[in-house]
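Hello K.,

You asked for the raw outputs rather than the summary table, so here they are, unedited. I folded two proteins back to back in the same session to keep the settings identical. This is the first:
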Amino acid sequence: MKVSDFDYILPEELIAQKPIEKRDESRLLLYNRANDKLDHRKFKDIVNYLKKGDCLVLNDTKVIPARLLGKKVDTGGSMEFVLLNRIKDDDWRVLVRPGKRAQIGTRFSFADGQLEAEVLDKTPEGGRIVRFYYQGIFQELLDRVGIMPLPPYIHESLEDKNRYQTIYARHDGSAAAPTAGLHFTPDLLEQIRAIGVNIAKVTLHVGLGTFRPVKVDRVEDHTMHEEAYHVAQEDVDIINNSRGKGGRIIAVGTTSLRTIESIADENGFLRAGSGVTDIFIYPGYKFKATDGLITNFHLPKSTLLMLVSAFAGREQIRAIYDQAISEGYRFFSFGDAMFLY
């Protein structure tokens, strides 16, 4: 299967640069897989397409302000770090730019010395392992001096960094937001609960690998990045009970979907636990646990576009995207959504 089969042309003006004022006022494209029917609504109308007994699965990861701008201690040369994940204590795996300045043993200073880092090692993919030095609590310091690592296609600054968080974000650890969840408001979730829809949480910390281009020609040759997950027993029980009673399991975002598919057995029932997943879903994959998917519109030739093509059909997704473009939908992280069911 060719990566080029998942390419499409998107007018640049359709790449959403900022979130709309009200989260649930974004547009929603609905696709019924059973009858091949499309519909167009506002996101808040999704309540009309959910049923009592359904289960929404939300990813409650929280984006950390993972981008740090600093200087090399001995020369003053500028340096950018993006935190990927904590290895242990104050040791982190990071992306660096420019890489030639980040040799093993080199020290860097951030926020006028409030935070310092030493390079301990290099990683196979070109990043670094660093150790941070500071006074106080690291997360509080990071909240003060770090910058939200917005995707590279967003060129405008974000005035309110909470708009790059879901309203139910709880567990620090992501370098990117699970953007399908950005459309939900507290009010909308209450309406959904009120009609008898169950809500379960999973945690999958989203890495920047989600934005890395696929550099091979054949889909099957791509190596997927790893991401850490945790799913509690109480949430597994909610999902399994919903399935057992005939309810639909609806993943909010590709990250939720990848998590539940990673921990599902052949009958679609989940097991609780923690781990890492590098599951790569593309056409031909047999879904075990997912009956519906709420998601945004994804980049050309991306693994996420391959995933939604596996779920709804490659030709169907191509037609859906063509229509979304002709209808002027907003694309990518701050863009509009679709519900595939």
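The second followed immediately with the same parameters:
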Amino acid sequence: MDKHVQVGVVLGSASDLDKVKPLFGVLDEFEVGYELAVISAHRTPELLDEYARSVSSRGVKIIIAAAGLSAALPGVLASLADIPVIGIPISAGTLDGIDALLSISQMPPGVPVACVGIDSAKNAGLLAVRILSLTDRSLAEKLAGYKQAMAGKVAEAMRNLKEEGYPIWDF
């Protein structure tokens, strides 16, 4: 698969980088090209506007936006760009991410934003891969293998518990 940029990852603050690193691992594992930008919806609105309006012409197919507190970033991106936006609420401040979760998940009609759990960067990456796999057979095959491997780990854990003497359901 060509590793051209398909996912734009936008952080509201560079301090969010550690919380989104699992996202990069997923995109790397599936060989999905991405770019990273740090753009504040409140502090750099002109830059955000420029970024959002240029993504489609640059081949970006999905934006993943991570933001804490008021978490306006994913919604503003979704209002400006006509591609899917996945929001990652980041734990921060007094409410530890609940405010960001509510801000991202409660968008007004006509401005859809997919929302994963607080600090759930890995799921954001996997959701992006699932969306991209709808039109990329190679990616769909990798995703199927990933899901099989996860199921295999669960089955192995059950076998190990059974060997330890726990009364495990016989599967």
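The chain has six helices and five strands.

Happy to rerun anything if the numbers look odd on your end.

Regards,
P.
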